[in-house]
Every structure is written in C-alpha cells, then in structure tokens.
Amino acid sequence: MSLAKNEVLQLVNRYIGVESGYLGDFSYRTHTDFYPEYCGIYDIFPDEIEGTTRGRFIAILTAESPDRQAKILRGVLERFPPNTDARQQFKSTIDTWIQQLEGTPVVASPMPIASMSTVVKQALIDAENLIRTSGPASAVDRVHTALHGHMNELCVHANIALPERPTLQVAVKKLRENHPGLAPSGQRTDEISRVLYSMAATLDALTTLRNNASPAHPNEALLGDNEALLAINAARTIFAYIDSKVRS
Q1: What is the DSSP string of 128-162?
Q2: pTM surpassing 0.85?
C-alpha cells in the first residue's frame, strides 16, 4: 500500500500544521535539509518543485514509494515530536501507517484516554516509542504492563474483588466471569465463548514471553521482530476487545 492523498493531507493539517503556506516551522532551506538529515534520503530536491513548502511536501510524499514514505513519516515524528494533545492523539495513526507501509501486520494501539491511570497511559506511550526506536522486543514488557494495569482498573471500577497483587491472567479471568458486559451476545455465542476462554492460554504465553524473552529481565535471548509483534498484536487485540465490551 501507499499513502493516499487524503492521508497525506491529514498528516499535514492534523499533525504538522500549516501557517501562511509554510509547513510547521519549515523554511525552504530546512525543508530541503529535512530529507537527508531526518529521513536518510539524499535524492529529493524540493527546490525543483514550484510552490510553498506545504505544496512541495505533499507532492513529494504522495509520489514516493511505500518504503520511502515510511522513512519520511519517521522523519516527521522526529522533526515534529508529539508534544501537543492533538499530535499525541494522531501519532497512533502515523505509527499504523508506518507499519503498513513497511509491510508489518499491525493491530492499532489502544488510545490513551483520561480515565486510564497514569501508569497505563505512560506504558502505552512508551510501547509506541520503543517499537519505533528500539524494536518490537523492547516494547513487549510495556504492552504487557499496559494490559495488566488496565485489566486491574476495570475490575476496580466494576467493584470486582481481586486478590492482593493479582496476575494479568487472574484479572482477566475475574472480568470474564463477573462483568456483565463480557457476556457473549448476538450470533454464534458458543464460538465466541470459546474464543474468550482461549484468551487464558494467550495471556499465559504473553506473561512467559515478557518474563523470559524480553528486556524486562536480563534475558540472553530475545524475541525476533515478527514474534514480538505477534505478542504485541495479541495483547492489543485482547485490550481493545475487553475495553470496548466493558465500556459500551
């Protein structure tokens, strides 16, 4: 896939920002320097394109191949960090585009929201940053922490009793057994129930991977990128499903 024109416009207007035709705080010179300095691309020459920095950027990004689009998006995140609420909210969309452009299957990260604890929100943010800067294996622990903390919070909010220092598996089991929102509904409830119960094995494996094959502990052998993304995507799927059912 390549970025569509409307997606490029979203990046420009919703993340970078435009004023008087200028893209962010780019001048013509710093826009030219952006591609070699932040993207590692040395054969883009904005001065050969007519128009404002905004118009030149849109023309360049739209025309590039998917792998080079991903490099430019990574450069944008470095050059324009997510230091405002609007940018932080849109960053997960950019991360998803990068993963898709690079050909890596991805499940969207849960969006940090006000009702989440500081620990859960920070773990979600840390995981996204680690995937981008250090690789997926480094993010497994943070995704596990976010899922674990959020499941505990959902139990507390629903007045579901938990033992002291509950494991992730225990918190999800308590939710599944006691929260009315997690009762399967609609078609094929038996099969949906089987999927829900299979989460127990998935959660057990996630905890084992976090403890024994991630930088959470001084492990000599770490997960490969594809295997780490499998674990991260599984955790995100469970997070998103339970959260949507409980909060609906």
Answers
A1: HHHHHHT-GGGGHHHHHHHHHHHHHHHHHHTT---
A2: no
Q: Which residue, 62, 83, 104, sits at the end of a domain?
A: 83
Whether 240 and 154 map to the same domain: the answer is: yes
Query: 142 and 186 in one domain?
Result: yes
Whole-Å CA distances, 136 to 35, 71, 131 = 25, 17, 5
Rounded CA separation 81/78 (Å): 6
Provide the residue-wise pLDDT of the chain in tens; the chain has 248 residues: 688 899 999 999 999 998 877 899 999 999 999 999 999 888 899 999 999 999 999 999 998 888 889 999 999 999 999 988 889 889 989 988 998 888 755 676 776 667 788 888 888 888 877 876 677 888 899 999 999 999 999 999 999 999 998 999 999 999 988 998 887 777 888 888 888 888 888 888 999 999 998 988 888 888 887 788 889 888 888 888 888 888 76
